[in-house]
Amino acid sequence: MPVCLYFSELRQARNQLIELLSNPGNQTTVVTSALDAYLGLLFGFVISADENGKDSKLRHAVQFRWSNTLLGNASLTQCDALYDQICVIFNVGLWFSKHAAAVAGKDEPKMEEALEVHKCLRIAAGMFMYIKKNLLGRLKEQPQQKATDLDSNILVAYQQQCLAEAQEVTIARAIELKHNSSIVSALAHETAKLYTEADAALTAAGDRVCLKWQKYLQFKSEIYYAYAYSYHGDSLLAQDKCGDAIKCLKESQAHYEKATQIIKEYSSAKGAGKTAKPQEHLFFRRLGPIVQRTLDKCVHENGIIYHQKIPPVTPELEQGAAYGIASPEEFQMPSSNSAWTVDTYKAFDEKKLPQKPDKAAAGENAEVPPVKEKEIPNSSKQPATSSGCVIS
């Protein structure tokens, strides 16, 4: 393939992929095929195609410019094909999380759609994990600015949030099928911990632009701790441990009240991102009354039947759920495009490659026009399920 034609195909494949990412409603197979096609073409710009497996002589031949999800339209520019590879995989991971939200936002998602949501979130988590473990350390130029998409803490936050949201699907299913309360409690506990870990990663990122996102994560963490203690209390009551059950339900109430306060702070918090309205979701609104009714029932039965003391210390939640834990789906880097042969690689004469552009002259940090993304539709219809779970 002539060198000029190769550059043309590379540009065309990249533009096609970026166009697809603007619509969360696109089919996953279409986006995956476009990703494989572009990364296959980009391969020889990252890794040498002459079978020695070293960095390509073309790796720093082309300048790439990307904005960052939390930093507005200001761009970061690098003459590094690996940088483009990382940013492409990162943005496809984001697309999978948005596609999951689009599918979950339907009026009444079917079981196969719930499974698709679960799988997409695990795929996204796997992409973020792959970047952090396999690619980030190979960059020769690490951004000095905080909270970029190349910040390992930001990658961890996205990964843990995706896994937490995948487990939300499992929790909703467990509640629908009326599984044992101990199973729901353990799953809710693990989910709360994932949201807490995502929040801690953003704290480590150390930028105020993350504050709004952190409030959202803190809200979700408190809600799932409330669910965990509520179902743990229900499980203890079934074991005739009424005093322990009362203590757990009071702990559940405390977490619910804290979540109610945090969501008020979230609405007015400064930082990147659109403002969701999780406080309007049935999954949140139904919990308070349920906990209160169960607590009233426990107090009533304890006064008539059990006469147990309320322990001063809240019973511990179970550590480690036996079922339903979501794990990242391993990302596999696509193989090189068949056009990348030893002869093709040699045809690129390094003596004729362009000089590394001056970043100042190239407009380092210049703004990138915002992508016009198609809005993710959110159903205004309340879920008919008993869990009321919605991914926002």
User: Helix- and strand-based class?
Assistant: mainly alpha
Strand proportion = under 5%
Kindly state the percentage of residues in helix: 55-70%
**Main β-sheet description:** 2 strands, antiparallel
How many beta-strand segments? 2
Please tell me the overall pLDDT: 89
Poorly predicted residue ranges: none
- What Rg is obtained from the alpha carbons, in whole angstroms? 25 Å
- Widest β-sheet, arrangement of strands: 1-2
- Termini, distance in Å? 46 Å
The DSSP helix count reads 12
Q: Helix and strand succession?
A: HHEEHHHHHHHHHH
* Shape field: elongated
Protein model, in words:
The structure is a single chain. The chain has a two-stranded antiparallel ribbon. The protein is mainly α and 392 residues long. The chain starts with a helix and ends in a 30-residue tail after the last helix. Strand 1 and strand 2 form a beta hairpin. It is built from twelve helices and two strands; from the N terminus they run ααββαααααααααα. The chain is elongated.
How are the SSEs ordered, and which strands pair?
Elements: H1 3-21, H2 28-46, E1 64-67, E2 75-78, H3 81-104, H4 111-135, H5 152-176, H6 181-205, H7 211-238, H8 242-268, H9 282-285, H10 287-306, H11 342-347, H12 359-362
Antiparallel strand pairs: 1-2
Q: Features of this protein?
A:
single chain; about 400 residues; mainly alpha; two-stranded antiparallel ribbon
Short structural summary:
By secondary structure, this protein is mostly helical. The chain contains 12 helices and 2 strands; from the N terminus they run H-H-E-E-H-H-H-H-H-H-H-H-H-H.
